[in-house]
């Protein structure tokens, strides 16, 4: 989203200029002086926090001596900087032009007060200079040794960034513990020295052969500075996109401890405010799901606007099934993940297609359609359970063929994996559970697909939830009838696959231990599968789509294309109160919304209605609707909405690629961060300055710390 200059008669914006844009200061006194110098009467009633959040001035309005360029990518103001350069007369040349930035006419009292404040500021400045006359403002000159040290650090950081960007692991495999084999970082140091890097050669050329150039302490310090610098660059950018900021340990501790750790990371280390959090989504599986749900509930209790919503990267039906805490459902979901991994190899995928052709040899159209359905990550789609039921017989045949391994095409590990998957597929409880999940989640499939579709589809989904819940309630009220049909479907499929109807052995053993009477299979699966699943799904949907969440999604009618679809008969005012505190002028919202509708309703015939939030925010005149602008920005951060920046390359996908392509033993937290965020601009000089400040050269190395734990796949990534 571009930044616009708040100065009168200034039309600069960040997307059309290389100038830096600066927020109004949070300090009320300095902020008041900025407003007075701007001569914007409409800004005087706003608080310093509102001005800091929503308004900026470009660098053209400051004396060049007040602007400091700390790096090629970062420009900052001095702490005492005051804007003094303004064009307050050019609008007089065209008096008929409509000016939205009204210039305040100064009275004699205003001029007198401004002069008094300016004189007082000059006196304070001169007094400070008298108190510290010996301060030399010039930067200290570096000695030759210091320059060499900084050059060495630059080269080291450059190599670490290369390791991260290319996904090169830090460690290397050793034949034995006694063997000396330099890690990849040291190998690249050697390569750079041989290529002519004088700074590295001077520092390490005198070291003995087969010794490490850097201790693990020094290497961890370099990695930590490198990682933190990249993270700071991301936090400073004013862009709406998904970013991976850090990893948090997840395995140990209770939910309260994890919440405290997450809050501390966000607020103390990153300088963010949890009060500004407008959504949270957790992509978890297995037992981690229950823990993350508890974390989400605790966060919502403390921050009511941190809505717990589905993740835009996971199909809603898969998300709902993952959240069910029943062992039989978790077995199905874990089996789906194993199937996904199993068919990543071309040989196993070819075997599946062969099995599909064999099973449906009398129906080529069915075989072709099923091969296409199973071709591309079908286990992550909204209709995953429908496809699973269709492919189940040939899938079991495929696993049996791999187990036989008559041609010797598969490794022993692949054969063992096929054996364990086949045992699960041939279990009657597995078949019943899949049938129940497929039929129950049919009612949420279209809703979930719309929820992750275009903006108009999401708006339609928000208005269709009542119908979804009504359908689920109807199933629950007539559970006997529905279960009878679903159970017959499971019986037919089991008969086709030659799988006997049976009650789980563990349940029968428990029944015998308490001398309970026998139970019929149909009754068992009704009581222990159908009823828990339908009620669990209903509860998950109700919890996930609260009234506040639905109100937020219904405000997508602010997008002009949605507004046009509704014939411009929208009622955002009824839902806008949820984000009232995020708006710069909440009292003028009704009037502004009316003008927003009129603008698009009476547009020219050649004007196309923007269809997404991102497209709407790029409009040059959206700045004249500050409340709408702020509202759309807040909505765009909800994790349930997919990013609309035109790029499908998200931090989640880059992280998953790193985890898939890097052996588990080589996972490294800092290198993973650098790899996922290799697109972020970085300044080596900033890294060098930070390292020199944190770890002076004459400081002792200290004790060797324990080796860093590898990245856990279910580590929490903040967005």
TrEMBL record:
The keyword Zinc-finger applies. It comes from Oryzias latipes. Residues 118-143, 696-719 are annotated as: Disordered. Residues 118-131 have a biased composition (Basic and acidic residues). SUPFAM superfamilies: Glucocorticoid receptor-like (DNA-binding domain). Residues 697-719 have a biased composition (Acidic residues). The keyword Metal-binding applies. Pfam families: THAP. It comes from the Eukaryota. GO terms for molecular function: DNA binding; zinc ion binding. Keywords: DNA-binding, Metal-binding, Zinc, Zinc-finger. InterPro entries: IFN-induced_PKR_regulator (IPR052958), THAP_Znf (IPR006612). This is THAP domain containing 12b.
């Amino acid at each position: 989203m571009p930044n616009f200059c708040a100065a009168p008669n200034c039309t600069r914006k960040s997307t059309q200029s290389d100038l830096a844009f600066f927020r109004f200061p949070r300090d009320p006194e300095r902020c008041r002086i900025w407003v007075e110098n701007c001569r914007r009467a409409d800004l005087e009633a706003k608080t310093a926090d509102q001005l800091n959040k929503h308004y900026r001035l470009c660098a053209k309005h400051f004396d060049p001596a007040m602007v400091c360029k700390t790096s090629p990518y970062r420009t900052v103001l001095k702490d005492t900087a005051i804007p003094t350069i303004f064009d307050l007369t050019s609008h007089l040349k065209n008096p008929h032009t409509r000016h939205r930035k009204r210039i305040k006419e100064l009275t004699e009292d205003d001029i007198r007060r401004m002069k008094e404040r300016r004189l007082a500021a000059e006196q304070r400045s001169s007094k400070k200079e008298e108190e510290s006359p010996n301060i030399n403002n010039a930067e200290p000159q570096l000695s030759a040794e210091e320059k060499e040290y900084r050059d060495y650090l630059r080269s080291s950081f450059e190599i670490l960034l290369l390791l991260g960007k290319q996904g090169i692991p830090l460690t290397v495999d050793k034949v034995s513990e006694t063997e000396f084999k330099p890690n990849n970082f040291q190998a690249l140091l050697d390569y750079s020295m041989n290529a002519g890097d004088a700074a590295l050669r001077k520092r390490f050329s005198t070291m003995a052969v087969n010794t490490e150039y850097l201790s693990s302490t020094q290497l961890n310090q370099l990695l930590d500075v490198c990682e933190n610098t990249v993270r700071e660059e991301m936090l400073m950018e004013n862009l709406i996109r998904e970013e991976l900021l850090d990893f948090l340990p997840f395995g140990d501790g209770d939910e309260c401890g994890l919440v405290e750790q997450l809050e501390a990371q966000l607020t103390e280390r990153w300088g963010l405010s949890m009060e500004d959090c407008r959504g949270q989504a957790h992509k978890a599986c297995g037992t981690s799901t229950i823990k993350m749900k508890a974390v989400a509930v605790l966060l919502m209790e403390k921050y009511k606007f941190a809505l717990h919503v589905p993740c835009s990267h996971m199909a809603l039906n898969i998300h709902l099934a993952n959240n069910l805490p029943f062992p039989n459902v978790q077995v199905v979901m874990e089996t789906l993940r194993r199937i996904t991994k199993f068919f990543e190899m071309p040989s196993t995928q070819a075997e599946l297609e062969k099995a599909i052709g064999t099973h449906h040899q009398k129906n080529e159209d069915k075989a072709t359609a099923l091969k296409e359905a199973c071709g591309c990550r079908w286990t992550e789609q909204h209709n995953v359970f429908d496809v699973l039921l269709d492919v189940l017989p040939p899938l079991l045949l495929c696993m049996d063929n791999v187990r036989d391994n008559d041609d010797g095409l598969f490794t022993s590990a692949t054969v063992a994996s096929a054996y364990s998957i086949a045992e699960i597929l041939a279990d009657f409880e597995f078949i019943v559970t899949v049938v129940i999940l497929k039929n129950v989640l049919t009612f949420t499939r279209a809703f979930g697909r719309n929820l992750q579709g275009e903006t108009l589809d999401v708006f339609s989904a928000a208005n269709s939830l009542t119908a979804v819940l009504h359908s689920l309630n109807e199933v629950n009220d007539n559970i006997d009838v529905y279960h009878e049909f679903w159970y017959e479907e499971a019986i037919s499929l089991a008969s086709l696959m030659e799988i006997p109807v049976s009650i789980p052995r563990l349940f029968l053993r428990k029944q015998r231990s308490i001398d309970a009477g026998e139970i019929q299979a149909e009754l068992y699966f009704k009581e222990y599968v159908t009823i828990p699943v339908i009620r669990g799904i209903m509860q998950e949907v109700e919890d996930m789509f609260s009234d506040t969440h639905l109100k937020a999604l219904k405000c997508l009618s602010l997008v002009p294309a949605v507004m046009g679809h509704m014939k411009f008969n929208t009622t955002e005012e009824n839902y806008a109160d949820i984000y009232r505190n995020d708006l710069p002028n909440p009292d003028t919202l009704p009037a502004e919304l009316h003008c927003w509708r009129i603008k698009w309703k009476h547009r020219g015939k050649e004007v196309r209605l923007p269809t997404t939030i991102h497209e709407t925010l790029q409009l040059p005149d959206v700045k004249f609707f500050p409340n709408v602008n702020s509202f759309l920005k807040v909505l765009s951060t909800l994790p349930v909405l997919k990013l609309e920046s035109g790029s499908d390359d998200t931090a989640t996908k880059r992280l998953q690629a790193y985890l898939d392509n890097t052996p588990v033993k080589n996972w490294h937290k800092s290198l993973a961060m650098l790899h996922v965020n290799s697109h972020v601009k970085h300044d080596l000089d900033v890294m060098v300055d930070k390292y020199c400040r944190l770890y002076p050269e004459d400081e002792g190395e200290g004790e060797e710390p324990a080796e860093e734990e590898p990245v856990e796949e279910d580590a929490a990534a903040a967005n």
